[in-house]
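Q: What does the assembly look like in three dimensions?
Context provided by user:
Components: two
Sequences:
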Amino acid sequence: MSDHELGADSPLTLPGFFDALADGELLGGVCGDCEQVLVPPRPACYECGSRAVGVEAQPTTGHVHSYTEVHTAPPAFEDEAPYTVAVVELDSGGRLLGRVDADYEDVAIDDPVELRVRDPTDEERAVALSYETEWPVHRFELR
Amino acid sequence: MPDPVVAAVGSSALGRTDLPGRDLFSVALVEAFDGLPDPAEVCEALYVGNQSEQYEHQIMLGTLLAEWAGMRDVPAERVEGCAAAGALAFRHAVKDVRNGEHEAVLACGVEKMTAGGTGGATDALSAAFERALEQRSGVTAPSQYAMLAQRYLHETDATERDLAEIAVKNHRNGARNPRAQFQQEIDVAKVLDSPPIAQPLKLYECAPVGDGAAVAVVTTAEKAAELGVDAVRVAGTGAAAHTLSVSERDLTEVHGARTATQTAYEEAGIEAADVDVAEVHDAFTVCEALLSEAAGFAPKGRGYESPLPPAERSEGWTDVELSTSGGLKARGHPIGATGVLQAVEAYEQLTGRAGDRQVEGADTALLLNEGGLADAVTVGHVLTTEGVAR
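A: Here is the predicted structure of the complete assembly.
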């Protein structure tokens, strides 16, 4: 694969992934050999090693695979603690971590959730790296 | 190929200290070289495990520590792998001696975690996790491991009390280790009643923030004999990187740790049942359970029985004694030094220097050091007294 193909508009790079996410589309890599879903997409499959990775829109619904509550947050998120985070398994089998907009006590393993995406706040932009400032922020809501 | 041995070890005080990292290293070096020639006369290279320059705003630790040891114009470098940095440094030393590159190498680890307060440590440690989706969601080290613990409790028969017993056992061991950051025993109620850090993990299930340094001289058996010191043979080494992201991994199976352990066993020509003592990476209680299973000590889903006396564990468990140093929980977890501290404990157990916590007849040890979330990277070493003249 040439450098040209892996530019910032490619969904196999992070800028390409977040551009699509800002438009409400969650992209995953899908391995052409073993069907592993990779979120975010990347050029090679960690499950089988294949570089035959295609890109497909992922469902935005899934369920809680595991979860917890952060009490002592990193300095950038101090004012937001405590907050709930979860590993979510999408209906496609792909997984990603995100905040859950619910109290820890109201969440359980296997709870159905849906992805929500919003623009970063001024506070989030202030602690972002230069290339992250326009990247949207994803969260999950209980369904 | 020369068989690498550990010929000398040393450590600084562990915990909240008033010494900067380089001085902690000096303290560890003084202990290791007590009665020996100068480090520059013995060692031909240096590796130092170190998690983060965020604590002391200092990189180039290879050069700095070599300079402080009086070793100039030698290969010297810092090794990074979060909490596995120490064992990675140790592994580089082992491989250099094994392949004949150097006759003796100084393996070091150092971390000055308290320099930036709790916020500084939380921030520096969060850098070990995937940035784009996970750091930006506000994960922390305890929250990442809590994902494992939550799932482990969901999938196995283990209870929160069972996990708490791991911390109780490791404090009991730490109380018998003069090097330990915490030398007080605790009971299970103290663990269960401690504040939640990231549910289901509570304060007393989490390894503490602390400073520390450790060193190990890795050399040949011949050189150790020439120095007139007891040697412990490094019979096997293995390392494996798994996935950085918590979401992409199996939350109740540390595949990378299993691979690293198996490689070390195969090199050493041993099986899990041959291991007498093991230092596993109990950064959080659930880690000891998962690593007991990955190392082949426990059947799947039964690793949480590690605090039980061998006779009371489920069928399929070996009689290994785990985290005799007190583990990361009580001995302490100065991140980059931890892998070398594990080698310090193995050296003491296998040479009969472990005092009140000595496991009688211990002749084979397994060390498992992990970095990032769980087995994002794991380094395994088998140390043994077999094949070493006394």
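Follow-up: The helical segments of chain A are 14-22, 122-126.
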